[in-house]
Write a structure and sequence with these properties.
- This protein is mainly α.
- It has 3 helices and no strands.
- The chain has a domain of 53 residues.
- 65% of the residues lie in helices and 0% in strands.
- The chain starts with 16 loop residues before the first helix and ends in a 6-residue tail after the last helix.
């Protein structure tokens, strides 16, 4: 099993104060760092959830397709002759 190595990096960025204040309230965070980390965490989770949803939709489509077509023939060279 692989374990993720967590590293941190110090950086300087310009952040809109109003946007930061709104994000702090929306996310329930009390510090700038916690707000940025939570926003990044949620963005990553949202992207992973969307990828999982798309993969599930593709698998469901292939399951339905398999009932109507021979996937072995579609994947073979015979299909493209």
């Amino acid at each position: 099993m692989r374990y993720a190595v967590h590293t941190t990096r110090r950086t300087t960025i310009e952040i809109d104060d109003d946007l930061l204040d709104r994000a702090m309230v929306a996310l329930g965070c009390t510090t700038m760092r916690a707000t940025v980390e939570e926003a990044l965490r949620r963005a990553g989770d949202l992207a992973a959830d969307e990828a999982d949803r798309r993969a599930a939709a593709q698998n469901a489509y292939l399951d339905r397709l398999e009932a109507r077509a021979d996937l072995g023939v579609l994947a073979s060279d015979e299909m493209w002759r």
